[in-house]
């Protein structure tokens, strides 16, 4: 059978990965936050929060660049592959898909959830741009990729969620400009 595109439910591994990355980021970010707050006379949560966000992104890029998986994805038998070749993603693809995680995060994951629902392969926006897909290996072979195949109504709802999720961000950008 080959590889099955991972369903949205099995993609819950990302929550466990964010928890791990946030704990590691906090161990680094809180001391940095206090140090910079004292040095720059700014509130400590600003540099601490920035450090935790950067640590999260580096966590995903680092693990995914190595072998196409993270600790939580590995526990759930998931991996990230290039959609066209079914080989593990490249470091460049890991960077692209995770830079777009910032957009997902800034819209409370509505953009990511919406675009994943709208995709036959449950791809977030970053996956689509990077040409990657999260898969669940079924029988050890990697010769064919089978879509998750959400129905048409669910795909429409997915695009609707993605658009609703990004509207506040667009409003903020317009207000700033």
Rg (C-alpha, Å): 18 Å
Shape: globular
Strand content: 5-15%
By DSSP, the count of extended strands is 4
Given as residue ranges, the uncertain stretches (5+ residues, pLDDT < 50) are none
Query: How would you write the strand order of the largest sheet?
Result: 2-3-1-4
Helix segment count?
Answer: 8
- Summarize the main sheet: 4 strands, mixed
Helix content: 55-70%
Structural class: alpha+beta
Overall structural domain count: 1
CA(first)-CA(last) distance: 51 Å
Average predicted confidence as pLDDT: 83
Q: What's the order of the H and E elements?
A: EHHHEHHHHEEH
Task: Compose a concise summary of this entry.
The protein has 177 residues and is an alpha+beta fold.
Explain how this protein is built.
There is one protein chain. With 177 residues, this protein is of the alpha+beta class. The chain has one domain. The protein is 63% helix and 9% strand. It has 8 helices and 4 strands, in the order E-H-H-H-E-H-H-H-H-E-E-H. It has helices at residues 13-40, 45-67, 71-75, 91-99, 101-106, 110-118, 125-130, 152-176, and strands spanning 3-5, 78-82, 132-137, 145-146. Strands 2-3-1-4 form a 4-stranded mixed β-sheet. The longest helix has 28 residues, at 13-40. It is globular and about 55 Å long. The termini are far apart.
């Amino acid at each position: 059978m080959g590889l099955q595109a991972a369903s949205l439910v099995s993609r819950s591994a990302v929550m466990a990965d964010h928890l791990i990355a946030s704990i590691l980021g906090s161990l680094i970010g809180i001391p940095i936050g206090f140090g910079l707050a004292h040095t720059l006379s700014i509130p400590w949560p600003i540099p601490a929060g920035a450090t935790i966000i950067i640590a999260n992104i580096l966590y995903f890029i680092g693990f995914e660049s190595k072998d196409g998986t993270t600790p939580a994805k590995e526990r759930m038998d998931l991996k990230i592959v290039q959609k066209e070749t079914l080989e593990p993603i490249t470091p460049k693809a890991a960077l692209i898909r995770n830079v777009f995680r910032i957009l997902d995060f800034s819209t409370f994951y509505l953009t990511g959830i919406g675009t994943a629902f709208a995709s036959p392969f449950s791809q977030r926006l970053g996956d689509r741009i990077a040409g990657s897909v999260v898969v669940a290996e079924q029988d050890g072979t990697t010769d064919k990729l089978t879509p998750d195949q959400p129905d048409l109504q669910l795909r429409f709802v997915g695009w609707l969620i993605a658009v609703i999720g990004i509207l506040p961000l667009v409003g903020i950008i317009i207000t700033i400009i």
